[in-house]
Amino acid sequence: NGYVKSWDHDIGSPVKFAQVLATIDAPDLDQQLSQAKATLASVEANEQIATLIADRNNILLQKQIVAQQLADQSTADAKAKKAVVDANAANVRQLEAMQSFKTLAAPFDGVVTARNVELGMLINSGGSGQPLFEVSDLHRVRIYVQVPQSFSAGLTPGLKATFEMPQYPGVQFDATLSHISKAMNPASRSMQVELQADNSAGKFFAGSYCNVQFEIPADAN
Prior knowledge:
It is elongated and about 105 Å long. The N and C termini lie far apart (68 Å). The protein is an alpha+beta fold and 221 residues long. Helix 1 runs antiparallel to helix 2. Strand 9 (160-164) and strand 10 form a beta hairpin. A five-stranded antiparallel sheet has the order 8-11-10-9-12, with no helix packed on it. The chain has helices at 27-62, 68-99, and strands at 2-7, 14-15, 20-25, 103-105, 110-115, 122-123, 133-136, 140-148, 160-164, 173-185, 190-198, 211-214. The chain contains two helices and twelve strands, in the order βββααβββββββββ.
């Protein structure tokens, strides 16, 4: 939980992998981490004292100055305090891992296609609201088509196809069939397939509509 401290990239901005998109100010988390580190330092000091006492009693036991029971008790106490140290160290690591989420970074090279953050905006961890940013990798695009059942038999991966887009009238682009669902939609009696097309020129945008023409091999007869 926290508040948006700053954001660095708006929609349409190209970003690289791990490039910072925004930072979140989380004072509550910072305070929890400081307290956890202080607690860890305290239990580490107690564990060091318990270890020294256990070592000393083990030496005195060899000289038959202290009883076996006292040496066993001090050894067990040192082990218990060591377990407390491990538990608190794990708590510190967990809070440090949570702190890493104060920085929102791009998961891959791409373009920011949505920004839903403003300065001072409240961020709830684990919320089911809209994403803070959307980053899209558009160097290749996927095209999903519902193919009628009567044409489904001639579809195989690697099949060539062309498609047209309303914003580029009269221009045809190449695509290749990559995946076939092999299941019919009972409502429309059609099968979803996926094509992929190169978008190195950046002409195609996510969510666009297109008309696809498949080059299905025809029977010679």
